[in-house]
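Sat 14:20. Reprocessing the chain from the morning session after the first attempt stalled halfway. Input below, unchanged.
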Amino acid sequence: MAKNNRGKLLYRQPSRSRGTCPICLATRIKLLDTQRKSDGTVLKVCKRCVGASKQRIEAAVDVTTPLAFRRRHKKAFHQLKVQ
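Finished this time. C-alpha cells:
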C-alpha cells in the first residue's frame, strides 16, 4: 500500500525544514524538534541534539547571523567538551 502523504508536511515548511542546527552547527540538516533555553527562547534543533544537555543548549550559537568561518567555529565549539 502506497504512502501518498509521507513527507507532505516538510514541503509546506520554509526551506523544507532544513537549516543549520544552533547546537552542533551541522548544515543543511532537518530541524524538526525544539529545545527551550532558560530565557524562554525556542530553538529548532536536529534529531541528534534533542537529548543535548542544558549546558550545550545554553551555549547554542545564534545561526541567523552568518558565521564567517563556520568550520573554525564548529571546531572551537566542540573543543569546549561541554557534555
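The CA atoms of residues 31 and 46 lie 5 Å apart.
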